[in-house]
Amino acid sequence: MKRLLAFALMTMTVAAACGGGAGTASPSPSAAATSAAPSKTAAPTAAAVKVGLVTDVGGLNDKSFNALANQGRLDAEKDLKVQTSVTESKKQEDYVPNLTNYAQQKYDLVIAVGFLMTNATWKVAKQFPDVKFAIIDGAPANDKGDTENLPNVANLFFKEQEAGYLVGVIAATMAKNKVGKATHNTVCSMGGIPIPPVDRYIAGYQDAVKTVSPTTTILNGYSNDFVDQAKGKEVGLNHISKNCDILFQVAGASGLGYIQAAKDKGVYAIGVDADQAYVAPGTVLTSALKRVNKAVYDTIKAVVNKTFKAGDNSFNATNDGVGYGTLDPAVPADAKAAADKALADIKSGKITPKDAVQVK
Predict the structure, then answer these.
(1) What is the side-by-side strand order in the sheet with 246-250?
(2) pLDDT band for position 191 (50/70/90)?
(3) Whether residue 26 sits in one domain with residue 100
(4) Is residue 357 part of a domain?
(5) What predicted TM-score, i.e. pTM, was given to this entire model?
(6) Domain count, the chain
């Protein structure tokens, strides 16, 4: 399997502090990263499976992607009695040394959180063929951006377009019927940077809107960042100035700024990855769920049970890898019914959401 990922070079723009590619491997975590000691809650034995989790630059406080991965780690530690540790990466140069640190300590499984770590995972997994790795949202990629399946790496992929479709059905139904604050029949979305897992969410969202309400206007943009909330808020305010009533964020911590713009201006927002209803009650209609915690948990369990599967592993609607979150009271019964029907149709194969962005 070869997938050309030329646009992976766009990751250079993620955060102001981010440099180019990954740094040189070193025997200890980067000084720019913070590492938590193994939790004591699991009371592991000497023979316990050891798992190390390395976040991307979004960090553990993104209330989304990285936070979910860490929750899966903690759940596995509690339920499966494994020994775990987590390291936060502060910049992209941290990825290789942070992954290398766990591999050198002979951890049984090292998990890389996010598409931005495909090249780092490739470098370290090739160097440590006897250590198992997993990468969320990608596959190991060489310096040219070509992916390569490795016998010691599980590639954890999601069908984000399915989750995007579900929340798109809710947004389109409300926009079409001008429910509550959705008075302008215009819906929007914002990604962090246009990488595949981000754009698949947006593609499904747009596909649902075009299917349910062809007359609804769609706007899309990018904050070009997964961390800076001010950049996300700026995009949000711009979209609202163009009559957007429902804003769907796919931008990690930067997306929290997009939600804040919706809250400040009295319109609606839709969260991503985790259930973000609590972020802004009365503003967040629902969230496009991507159960990263389930992927992390299931992969750790597979190592414990000696059923680890290298190569592509898919998490989708049929195995509850994606879905939609808590519904705000503003969401009417017909919108929920439409989303539930769409979910059933996706599971049955009647609906196959598009995975390419239509409105750039």
Answers:
(1) 217-222, 186-191, 246-250, 268-273, 284-290, 322-324
(2) very high
(3) yes
(4) no
(5) 0.86
(6) 2
The sheet with strand 109-113 has its strands ordered as 34-36, 83-88, 50-54, 109-113, 132-136, 153-158, 311-315
Single-letter residue type at 13: T
State the residue range of the domain holding 51: 6-158+292-318
Chain centroid to CA 295: 11
Same-domain pairing of 39 and 152: yes
Whether residues 336 and 251 fall in one domain: yes
Are 274 and 297 members of one domain?
A: no
Q: Classify burial at 250, counting beta carbons within 10 Å of its beta carbon; exposed 0-12, middle 13-18, buried 19 or more.
A: buried
Q: Is 25 left (phi over 0), alpha (psi -120 to 50) or beta?
A: beta
Task: Tell me the HSE value of 145 on the side-chain side, using a 13 A CA sphere.
Answer: 9
State pLDDT tens for residues 40-73. Answer: 434 444 468 999 999 999 899 899 999 999 999 9
Indicate whether 286 and 201 sit together in one domain. Answer: yes
List the CATH number of the domain containing 65.
3.40.50.2300
